[in-house]
Amino acid sequence: MIHFNEMKYLLSILLLSYQAFSLEFNELEHLFSSFHKLHSENLLMQFNTELRFNPPPQGFDESYWWEIDHASARFVLIDNANPQQLSIFVFGGLARLSGMTKDSMAISLCHELGHLLAGPPLKFSGSSVEGMADYFSTGDCLRNYFLSYENSPPRKSLPREVLVCEKYYENTLDVNLCLRSFVALDGQLSLLRLVAPELEFWDKSTERPDTIRQDDYFYPEPSCRLESMRNGILGLPAPSCWLPK
């Protein structure tokens, strides 16, 4: 018989094991390969753009960016080349965040692709604003990845996630894609909590700006970014915390 205190201990161990879950180098490389197969041909045909993931600096090996502990991803578009070159960089610190799975990292890759593909509103530099990239990341881009690649989720869907997905979707496939997307948000929540430690999964932003911020380095507040990603999953309009109505 397991006593109450023993049960609490076992649950703590399980929780710690879950929190420690993160991506390995080979898993990230496999994800890069999957995204390259999904997007490289379309980017080359429609945008004359060659897609690359984590190209190392000259003279360094493929693990160069993996060794960097910064929890971040970036995109660089070289538009004076023919074809253009879109490079997406993922630092190892992002892959090693707790809860960061292939599915969660797929959201980050979709976000970086979104700066080219999501469309207006645009930054002054010409790429999609951060809010739009967040919103795009969990919409068609993530759905297309899920339809092409199966991954085992690290946890079961929570009751509220089931209720919300069944509220907005009737088709079983759509409900399952919605549930898988919510689980994938765990790693993104870990990333946003680096800035806002108290952020909770269902938090909503109270910001209501009058204009769209088009600065190159402006990000909406973490709760707004999370709301954008949730709305993308549910097919709801982009939230007014960054897109004035």
List keywords for this structure.
245 residues; disordered N terminus; 49% helix; mainly alpha
Short characterization:
This protein has 245 residues and is mostly helical.
Descriptive report:
It is a single chain. This protein has one domain (4-234). The relative contact order is 0.12. Mean pLDDT is 91; it is low at 1-19. The N and C termini lie far apart (58 Å). By secondary structure, it is mostly helical. Helix 2 packs parallel to helix 4, helix 4 (102-117) packs across helix 5 and helix 4 packs across helix 8. It contains nine helices and three strands, in the order ααβββααααααα. The protein is globular, with a radius of gyration of 19 Å. A three-stranded mixed sheet has the order 1-3-2. A hairpin with a 5-residue loop joins strand 2 (73-78) and strand 3.
